[in-house]
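Quick question: what would this complex look like in 3D?
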Amino acid sequence: MTLLSANLRDNLLNSLLPELCQLIPAQSIITEIEQLRTFECDAFTTMRQLPLLTVLPETIEQVQHVMRCCYQLNIPVVARGAGTGLTAGSMPVENGVLLGMSKFDEIHDIDLNNRTALIGPGVRNQSVSDAVAPYNLYFAPDPSSQLACSVGGNVAENAGGVHCLKYGLTVHNILELELVTIEGELITLGSAALDAAGYDLTAIMTGSEGLLGIVVKIRVKLLPIPTSTRVMLAAFATIEDAGDAIAAVIGAGIIPAGLEMIDQTGICAIEELMHAGYPTDAAAIIICELDGSVAEVEDELNNVIAIFTHLNATDIQIASNAEESKRIWAARKAAFPALARLAPDNYIMDGTIPRRALSQVWKQINQLAEQYQLQVVNVFHAGDGNMHPSILFDASDEEQHQRAFELGTRILELCIQVGGTISGEHGIGLEKINQMCLQFSSTELQQFHALKQAFDAKQLLNPGKQIPTLARCSEFNAMHVHQGEMPFPHLERF
Amino acid sequence: MRQAISPPSLMAMTQDQAHDHAQALAEQVRQAYVKKQPLAISGGGSKGFYGLPVEGETISLCDYQGIISYEPSELVITARAGTPLHIIEAVLAEKGQMLGFEPPHYDPNATLGGTIACGLSGPRRPFSGAARDFVLGVTMINGKGDILRFGGQVMKNVAGYDVSRLMCGAQGTLGVLLEVSLKVVPIPNYEETQVLNCTEAEMHRLLSELGRQPLPISATLFHDDQLYIRLSGTAMGVPSAARIIGGAPLRDEHLWSQIKEQQHPFFQSEQICWRLSLPPAANPIPTEIAKDQLIEWGGAQRWIYSEASDSDILQWAEANGGHATAVDRGIRGSTRFHPLSPALLSLSKRIKQSFDPAGILNAGRLYPDL
């Protein structure tokens, strides 16, 4: 820290601390550099920044007070849930306050008749389902980090998971939000009913990455636990066969609870770590989960088996009990630890594409990988088109690190060109902020900024994240990629 | 797996014509922005009653028609705002699919754009989602005449704020919809309705009990001490659920479309009909407020005729966790929406301002100040 920045920091602390202390107990404010290190990054650990200080409020009034103080003194505020984000979305900003919401971990009310729960944003995703399981209910969004991630974070990122084709994203599973604005005002968005008067502001808040307000209460929707769940695994000799099989299942009117696809490199890496019985000679495998009542699942299972068999599946395994289902899923969920064994670092992409472009994009990713001399492994939420290509590299080699990053950008450009998006569920944060310039035109970005202005005129909430400034885009030298208008004329389109 | 789509039936205009048409619409907004000339957005005119009267020069979307892309295996359809809703539904049905929110038409002229702008959903809403839940992306013109695209044609998309869903129910006050991409769902293989005799209290008890079981319920209706429960699913799943629910099978095939389109005799009154949107298990509405009622959406949507004062109705709805809307389908510009809290109203105004700085788009349709 330079003398100048140390001085600035001291000055800010001197003006902010006495104000904060009027309502916030001293033990809820962290200013020691060593303790602040805990908060310097989220799960995207290559980007770090110490905050000015961290506040861990316990009540809504305290959150309002923090916001009023910061608003008055023009100090930025970054909210943080459990810190499991993958895009540096909750990385602090220099000389800003980090607002840790972990103490808002209370389940206030479980309303069985309306099948909703009113919870604090710091409640862990899995805890919601655990708390309502005795009543045969659960909370549907299930990101892979569900043991650790908070529902407040799920709202900020509009988290998905493996079951969202059938059960939706976070935005489909919340009804009401209580929000503290940057001015410290408390506003209720949505309602306990199925809709609310006026604009649909719960929709705009969900996935807004802490740029519009601080969520302090969430009413979530609860669903009945299906009586029957069956999991199957099918192997295919080519990516095209697997892609066709997925299209055929959906085309037959079946919406599986989960539909995942893994390529050969992924299968081998997972098999080596987990010994789950994945067929390592297959070009791709599909994992398909069906759920519902016993009768429904039986019907659908027979249909899916017929489709896969007809479309050249080389092997079909049907889990005959919960234990076997768990084994198939556990291996899939271990995909990222398995990849971690293949290279020191891996850069996980989150692009989402229309499924029809799958085999094309898959081939082009492999061509690009060859061109950049890096290995890419594909794990794919096939049901909803969310790809997670993982670029394997060694970050200690500066040049290789740079190449991995460029390859990542090329892959995201590809996703946009076929009509997809740069992020399906991880969010933008800082990690993908430059690629936003590829997906959106400058007028679209200006509209985002104008909307932000409506909530946060002073630009104090999580500044510099999610929506790039036009200056940043021209520095990144990125051309807006028009969906379906630029290269790859051989791709069929309407 | 691409399906060959014959252009004449689906593409009402060529790409170039559509492009020129969209540019002309944007130019009209641009001119209006400069002149601060209010615009009244019009589609098929089927939902003119829904909202307050709007004055201004007409900007018509009804010729901006055509399905731009539809791929059944993607579960996504993209079409221009002026495309008649019945055409979209027919094209989907041909491939065994449908709009999951079962939108009401109210008139054969209903368009896709109007349906999304009004954000209305039918009987299936509590069980499979509202219009906004199926919106994946929009192309729109903001109040400055910029053509903007948000969201996309994929199921999951978290790049930027979710502006497309915000457009749903905004009634054109934030932008003129040009194109909409929607998630679609398979038409269930099998459908059946069970009818049971019960009181309102019994209905609430039964539905809250059934709601905790994974049953393929796709609609409910309570009227005159009769509870109707529609089941949609597989050929084995539906009958097994019907046995759990009990009651007798209903033979009337038109009930649900009558309810959706408000052609049921209950709705044939000259009086103003109130829509109360409530938590499904909210208390029964006291008789001094509800003279006559019809309950949909598992209890979450209750239509009433009332002799109580507006403020009593609004207060009761609010005290019970919901809101109320006064609807008169017979008169244009006659719907009154539940007043917003001061904090919410001022935030809504700032949002409106961010999309429509001159305040020219469907000004006053939702609330006098928006």
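Answer marked as accepted. Residues 7-186 of chain B form a domain with the Uridine Diphospho-n-acetylenolpyruvylglucosamine Reductase; domain 3 fold (CATH 3.30.465.10).
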